[in-house]
Amino acid sequence: MSGGGTETPVGCEAAPGGGGKKRDSLGTPGSPAHVIIKDLGEIHSRLLDHRPVIQGETRYFVKEFEEKRGLREMRVLENLKNMIHETNEHMLPMCGETMRESLDQVLQRLQAATDSVCRLQQREQERKKIHNDHLLASEKQHIIQWEEFMKGQHSKQAAVDEEHRRAVGRLREQYAEMEKDLAKFSTF
Question: What is the per-residue burial (b if ≥16 Cβ within 10 Å, else e) of 165-174?
Answer without folding.
Answer: eeeeeeeeee
